[in-house]
Design a protein that fits this description.
With 363 residues, the protein is of the alpha+beta class. It is built from eleven helices and 15 strands. The protein folds into three domains: 63 residues, no CATH class; 136 residues, Sandwich (Immunoglobulin-like), CATH 2.60.40; 135 residues.
């Protein structure tokens, strides 16, 4: 055995390795020993590469968690709050500019993703450095709760439907915030946010939300009001309107398109001819929402001003009628721009085949 080891050691020298006295078995023994000494060096790069990759994964996870936590903090929520109780999201809408000293109602869809119901305590507008928005900023506002089915958009008071005090409103999944707002001289401000204070399972929380309609609140220049006007009727439509306002007989409306009937309604609203407005509503009992007597009791302040109507029906005549059933349909139009959600003006066909306006037609 000792003689064999003596032969193995000098075998590392190639001159010895090739001598005749060095047997084939001795050569195999040397090769195995050399391979054992080289094996660790081959594995070192692979091990280092694996450790480096694992490190990158952990760094990536850390950065992702940090980003999520930062985002949550900006919204007034901790990461634990978002995981355990849920969070609000609000539609990113835009609208305006608005006329000064006019009151508008803006419907903002809001969604809650928590497992337990969230109860609203307070909703406020804030500006830069989390300062509460004041009337001195030119914005007077109040938040209300609304129907989740109400389409987002800008409405007059008589078109908004039922609203409720925001305090105590419970949100399980989807709902609507209704922002009543009146502006003086206002310019857009990206620092404006909505702060919601609420409770979940008896625990008080708050969250900041941003939406384009709040950040983009602005007023029209004062000299633009003189340029506003009503929908322009063509000769045939004007003749029908003149005849209809005398006796309110729906037979005058026979053969009119949904667009023409809608234009008569807008014209009557603009002229504050409330009897004509009501007479243009559907006479189907199942669609009637209030009586003519109740309509006469509606104060003028709740019917909307001419300026509001002009803004609400901007680009109306470029709209298109979409029939949704044998007796129902709506005119789709874009009062602001094609990049924003359209408005819809609903109409209903009566039993005589005459198109009439739905109660609260803007949805």
């Amino acid at each position: 055995m000792k003689n064999k080891e003596k032969k193995i050691r000098p075998a590392l020298d190639k001159t010895v390795f090739h001598k005749d006295s060095f047997t084939q078995q001795d050569k195999q023994t040397v090769r195995r020993k050399i391979q054992r000494t080289q094996r660790p060096s081959r594995f070192v790069p692979a091990i280092v590469g694996t450790l480096f990759a694992v490190s990158l994964v952990f760094i990536g996870i850390f950065l992702m968690n940090t980003k999520l936590m930062d985002s949550a903090k900006q919204n007034g929520l901790s990461n634990e709050d978002m995981n355990n109780t849920g969070a609000f999201t609000i539609a990113n809408l835009s609208a305006g500019p608005f006329l000064t000293n006019e009151t508008y109602y803006i419907v903002l869809p809001i969604t809650w993703n928590g497992n337990s119901t969230a109860t609203i305590k307070e909703v406020e507008l804030f500006k830069e450095n989390q300062q509460t928005l004041q009337t001195s900023d030119g914005i007077s506002y109040t938040f209300y709760g609304g129907d989740a089915a109400k389409r987002p958009g800008v409405y007059a008071r008589d078109q908004i439907g039922e609203i409720s005090d925001i305090h105590g409103v419970e949100i399980e999944k989807e709902s609507s915030l209704i922002l009543e707002v009146s502006l003086r001289i206002v310019v857009p401000d990206k620092s404006r946010t909505i702060k919601i204070r609420y409770s979940v399972d008896g625990e008080d929380k708050e969250q900041n939300l941003t939406t384009g309609v709040v950040q983009g609140l602005e007023t029209l220049p004062e000299d633009t009001s003189s340029e506003l006007g009503s929908i322009e009727l063509n000769t045939a439509e004007q003749n029908v309107y003149t005849a209809f306002e005398k006796d309110l007989d729906t037979q005058h409306l026979v053969g009119l398109s949904p667009m023409s009937v809608a234009k008569l309604y807008i014209q009557a609203s603009y002229l504050e001819d409330h009897e004509v407005v009501y007479a243009l509503y559907t006479d189907r009992k199942e669609y009637t929402q209030w009586s003519e007597k109740e309509d006469r009791a509606i104060p003028d302040s709740d019917r909307g001003t001419r300026e509001q109507l002009t803004q609400q029906f901007r680009n109306f005549e470029q709209g298109r009628f979409l029939q949704t059933s044998k007796i129902e349909g709506y005119i789709e139009y874009y009062p602001n721009s094609n990049n924003e959600p359209p408005s819809g003006f609903q109409l209903i066909k009566n039993k005589d085949g005459i198109w009439q306006v739905a109660f609260m037609p803007i949805q």
